[in-house]
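Mods, move this if it's the wrong board.
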Amino acid sequence: MTPASNTRRDILKWAALASAPVSFSLSMAQTPLRHNPFTLGVASGSPNHHSVVLWTRLMPDAASGHSQFATSDVSVQWEVADDEAFKVNRRAGQVVALSALAHSVHLELDQLQSDRWYYYRFQMGDAQSTVGRTRTLPHPEAMVQKLRVAYASCQRWEHGYFSAYDHMGQENLDMVLFLGDYIYEYAGAANAVRLPSGGWVSSLSDYRDRYALHKSEKSLQAMHAQCPWLITWDDHEVSNDYAALERGQSGNIGFDFPAQRARAYQAFYEHMPLRASALTRAIDGLAKGAEMRIYGQVAYGKLANIYLLDDRQYRDRQVCNKGFGFGSGWVDPDQCEAWLDPQRSLLGTAQEQWLDQAFSNARKDLRPWNVVAQQTIFGRRDYKLGEGRFLWNDGWDGYSSARQRMAASMQGHVLKNPVLLGGDTHENWVGHVMADAYKDDSAKIGVEFCGAGITARSAGNSRLAARLAENPHFIFADSERKGYGVVEFTAKQIQTELRVVDDVRQTQTKIETLAKFTVEAGVPQVQRTA
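Not the wrong board. Structure tokens:
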């Protein structure tokens, strides 16, 4: 148990201790509970070739709000085995669920065999969680036949049901890449399919409640239990269009935004299968303004490198906004002196340098695919038809020099087959990464797939054909259907399917393939095949 007084330093120390498994051989306690505390399900994530994080959170009784553990730290039992019946190579132990971290569990299970599927579950008293399925990645030097991933983003509660995950669970995936906007901070929406409770999100309890609301949906729970997730955030996990420690434009902004961001970051950690090292890298624990490092890299055998980026925490403020000057907007870059400022960054200097070094290292490792999983659309998206430009300042367009540095890094290090995955736009966009985003005749150096999101609404297709023609580096766009993408990697090619549901307003939906694409290794050219 932790000391009675939980300072920030105590929380960090105990978060690290709580993440470590403690093996035991005694039978599990069967203390009767008055309710099932595992109502948010289970999840796994942050995998590598020998380790994975297992997650759950203990919840009070939904009807009464009563909890038998209240403000106490609690010991939770865990089991891991090679089979769903927990008969083969069973391991068991206990882990601490800290009251200071909303009784969340982040079990960092280590010394696992590479390229292996495992089953896991948790128990507290006589209550048992659902069974989750997870995996380790192949050893970085192992030859691998294929990798199959889904990418998803933008799951706004008010805009529909998360039924796309019911279909994603049938895709035989190795992992899910979630690219931001896991929750939205809004109090409601026009023509809402359903409403969140509690109004605008700003306090720690608000953020916790919003995550709990999202995770109460069985479709999302089931997908988390299917395979490990690699997860990054965008803006709505905190507040619309915020930039580092600068407020955005949302109705949930408090007087002290850095403190609000710290509360949001803490709640994100509490509800995601992240390693304790993400939290302990903070400048001063959970203090306002503290860093929480979520960017990183994993290798999937000798087949692919996956780089997970963070484009919110370290970015410079958006430029040339009207009105109060914060948040986002459409900008004519020719009327914005700061648009091409070479000092401005979307990723921050440290993350840019880390990524450049990672690209340099990739030149030596001979993996045929380099997957950059990040929040938003990378290529230029000009919405002014004809002469002139009209660009969104919150994405890569608004950080043109930073985008050019990243493209130059890919090109300079001869990065093999870059594949950029993104979200944020609520639309499907497919196209090419150009050496110079403003020159349509510049070299193609990679490919890009930006996803439509699980539910978040978009503008529709009435003007999309003209906008697609204005941006010829893209070959496909759709602004109506919601869902996810599935990418299958082999040494010779990738195949991407855009999977969409028929109606997010319904809990039971049909799934179809909106379009299919192929990219051959060594040829940065997207070919539509269906």
